[in-house]
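Re: the 339-residue chain
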Amino acid sequence: MTPLYLGVDAGNSKTVVLLCTAAGEVVGSGRSGNGDIYGASSERAAVEAVIAAVKEALTVAGAQPDGIGGAAFRLAGVDWPEDHAFWVDALAAELPDVAALRAYDRCSISNDGFAAIRCGEPSGNGVAVIGGTGSAVAGRGPGGAEWSMSFWIQDAHGASGLVAGALRAVYRAELGLGPKTALTKRLLAYFGYADVEEMLHQFTRRGDRPSRPWHTAAREVAGAAADGDAEALRILREHGEHLADYARVTAARVGFDVASDEVPVVLAGSVIDADGSPVRAAVLAALPERFASARPRLATLPPVAGAALDALAEAGVEVTPEVTSRLRASMPPPAFVRT
């Protein structure tokens, strides 16, 4: 039986899974909900989401778990050793044939930030900077060392971070503690509130919160910046500076000489990938000043494809340009990975 290779990318908005052959052809895919043990309604719910997506992919491929020859689980919420141990136990209980591959170093479990590295750097060595609903920064060094910023990230990023910063600017302006900003009018109109106090009340009160999550207003921040609003421009500039700093620290942690090595920095995620993304522009502007040896490149595949390529590479399959091209050509439609 020809083995298949499993790539899993689990986050707060969705969990997506690919099954591919050693040649890179995608033969199965699955999608489910929140697979983050920190962000799902319960740890059990996160496990069920991941297992459901894997089983869907197996069903589509007409395969069984014992037909998997390598697996890479890239899961939001694998931040501490106990998180890794939690998933080792969960997979042993739910997918014992796949979990058994860990004995042969063919089943790895790590933070979802690692999934994006091979999406822009075929060697798998470099730093990934991901901006989606939230953010992740992870790296793999030339000697194989891995490290994720995880909870070392002390600033909110991604769509949630942009809007959190915008709301803070609006509230401070309302108190007279910060400059007036066009963000006030934009956010009030977007969320449909009459004034700033009502908006603050609705986002902080007990009981049901607004049905429209605040991260969905990220385009309003981008629009205000495009119109020249000073506070929106500041938020974006600081966003880029923070992510550039975190990329440099991560590179050093995994063994790159950040003073002389050329370090691949893969930029990925829905907020960074968007056409004309001001976040991408902010990161690209900050990198030369704060991490001069960085060599940025945009991800050319979604993170779940990077997880599948990790599964291949870790199982000893050479990830050639032909394998990557075949995987890209056989990916499910774009809606499969859309948040």
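The longest helix spans residues 230-253.
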